[in-house]
């Protein structure tokens, strides 16, 4: 499970990441990344994601539609994606918003395939090629 301070919950935050962020598509998923606009003052740290002007940890949210499968399959895909993103939070810049949208093939994919697609998408979005 993702730590509380790393969860994306508000509809407005999802919309910001999807509409104003960059997108990288892969066969199993699409990743939207919205990086923080400007670095906050040095020495300012908080875990409140809604506090203005301070360093917030990266936050991630997931979109798994009914096209992916039934409720059991959707929840399984969501759990796998949460686990994968949790292990990659340290790669994300502070204050960034990430939305991972699963595509229909994600329910039939194994853990390694999802990890490969997520890594490739994050590399592309963070400027490491892909």
From TrEMBL:
Enzyme Commission number(s): 3.1.26.5
Gene Ontology BP, a term: tRNA 5'-leader removal
UniProt-listed PROSITE patterns: RIBONUCLEASE_P
Enzyme class: hydrolase
Database matches in SUPFAM superfamilies: Ribosomal protein S5 domain 2-like
Chain residue ranges for the region called Disordered: 35-57
Keyword Isomerase: no
Record keywords: Endonuclease, Hydrolase, Nuclease, RNA-binding, tRNA processing
One term of GO molecular function: tRNA binding
Gene Ontology annotations for the cellular component aspect, listed alphabetically: ribonuclease P complex
Keyword Repeat (UniProt): no
Any Pfam family hit: Ribonuclease_P
Transmembrane regions listed in the UniProt entry: none
Catalytic activity: Endonucleolytic cleavage of RNA, removing 5'-extranucleotides from tRNA precursor
Subunit structure: Consists of a catalytic RNA component (M1 or rnpB) and a protein subunit.
Family, similarity comment: Belongs to the RnpA family.
NCBIfam families documented for this protein: rnpA
Stated role: RNaseP catalyzes the removal of the 5'-leader sequence from pre-tRNA to produce the mature 5'-terminus. It can also cleave other RNA substrates such as 4.5S RNA. The protein component plays an auxiliary but essential role in vivo by binding to the 5'-leader sequence and broadening the substrate specificity of the ribozyme.
PANTHER family given in the database record: RIBONUCLEASE P PROTEIN COMPONENT
Name assigned to this protein: Ribonuclease P protein component
Origin species: Streptantibioticus silvisoli
């Amino acid at each position: 499970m993702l730590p509380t301070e790393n969860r994306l919950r508000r509809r407005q935050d999802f919309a910001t990441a999807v509409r104003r962020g960059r997108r990288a598509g892969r066969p199993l998923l699409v990743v939207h990344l919205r990086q923080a606009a400007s670095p906050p003052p040095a020495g300012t740290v908080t875990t409140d994601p809604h506090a203005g002007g301070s360093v917030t940890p990266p936050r991630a949210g997931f979109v798994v539609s009914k096209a992916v499968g039934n409720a059991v399959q959707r929840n399984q895909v969501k759990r796998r994606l949460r686990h994968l993103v949790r292990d990659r939070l340290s790669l994300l810049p502070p204050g960034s918003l990430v939305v991972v949208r699963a595509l229909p093939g994600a329910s039939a994919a194994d853990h390694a395939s999802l990890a490969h697609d997520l890594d490739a998408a994050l590399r592309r979005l963070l400027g490491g090629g892909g």
